[in-house]
Amino acid sequence: MACTSPVIVALDYANARDALAFVDKVSPERCRLKVGKELFTAEGPELVRELVRRDFDVFLDLKFHDIPNTVAKACAAAADLGVWMINVHTLGGSKMLQAAREAVAGSASQPLLIGVTILTSMGSADLHEVGLPGEPMENVERLAALAAQSGLDGVVCSPQEVSRLRQQLPENFQLVTPGIRPAGSAGGDQTRIMTPVDAMTAGSSYLVIGRPITQADDPMQALDEIEQSLQLAVSS
Ligand SMILES: O=c1ccn([C@@H]2O[C@H](COP(=O)(O)O)[C@@H](O)[C@H]2O)c(=O)[nH]1
């Protein structure tokens, strides 16, 4: 059975043992899983293959950003792992994005190819520091348009940009949103945040959630509560 939940749990663990202790308690129908830089650097592709073998939809969040040839080769290697979604930084520019698009199109498994716009940890002062003028919103809008023109399947953005992007981009364009914080949970290093229900109401396709689940005293209860809040919002 396919997963109908929008929740992608970020497996930001230091090692495979800790990650699999969480994974053993969930099923592929219940949630999707994200493997990011920490876990991938520690454990490599074999853990990704194991999650794919267990039938999970895996988002391999390595945010490739390099010259077009290198990114294309990295995307092809990522696609060959059989993952469901991969990503690149849109700030790599259209040549890099199109090279990634062609590499994925030529792969056997053809994962969704998503472009990271502006990291959800960044506010306007952080953008100005690196020479990007304006607010996160206008930067995200510009980069999301570039991603769409370059043939990507969607973008990573904060939930705060979703309702604006929904008015500008094709209906089937995927809006993948980290920066999700249930009411009362710590923001940590995230700057542009929203609750799971508000993000879905705004039009997010997927909610990427890490610490509010994985660092909770009881991760399964935290996941349950998020799921229940989403179900209640749908039924009300
Ligand atoms: O702009 C981005 C892109 C990726 N992420 C990743 O999402 C999760 C969020 O984890 P939390 O613990 O829920 O903050 C994490 O793996 C990031 O690498 C992001 O946060 N923002």
TrEMBL record:
Active site: D61 (for ompdecase activity), K63 (for ompdecase activity), K63 (proton donor), D66 (for ompdecase activity)
Orotidine 5'-phosphate decarboxylase domain sequence ranges: 6-226
InterPro entries in UniProt: Aldolase_TIM, OMPdecase, OMPdecase_AS, OMPdecase_bac, OMPdeCOase_dom, RibuloseP-bd_barrel
Gene3D superfamilies: Aldolase class I
The keyword Lyase belongs to this UniProt entry's keyword annotation: yes
Keyword list, A-Z: Decarboxylase, Lyase, Pyrimidine biosynthesis
Cross-referenced Pfam families: OMPdecase
A GO term, aspect molecular function: orotidine-5'-phosphate decarboxylase activity
Gene Ontology cellular component list: cytosol
Reactions this protein catalyses: orotidine 5'-phosphate + H(+) = UMP + CO2
Biological or metabolic pathway of the protein: Pyrimidine metabolism; UMP biosynthesis via de novo pathway; UMP from orotate: step 2/2
The EC number(s) this enzyme carries: 4.1.1.23
One BP annotation, GO: 'de novo' pyrimidine nucleobase biosynthetic process
Spans traversing the lipid bilayer: none
Presence of keyword Transmembrane helix: no
Coiled coil location: none
EC class (word): lyase
Residues that coordinate or bind substrate: 12, 34, 61-70, 120, 181, 190, 210-211
Signal sequence coordinates: none
General function of this protein: Catalyzes the decarboxylation of orotidine 5'-monophosphate (OMP) to uridine 5'-monophosphate (UMP).
Binding partners and assembly: Homodimer.
Family: Belongs to the OMP decarboxylase family. Type 1 subfamily.
NCBIfam families reported in the protein's UniProt record: PRK00230.1 (NF001273), pyrF (TIGR01740)
Protein name, entry field: Orotidine 5'-phosphate decarboxylase
Source organism per UniProt: Thiohalophilus thiocyanatoxydans
High-level lineage: Bacteria, Pseudomonadati, Pseudomonadota, Gammaproteobacteria, Thiohalomonadales
Gene expressing this chain: pyrF
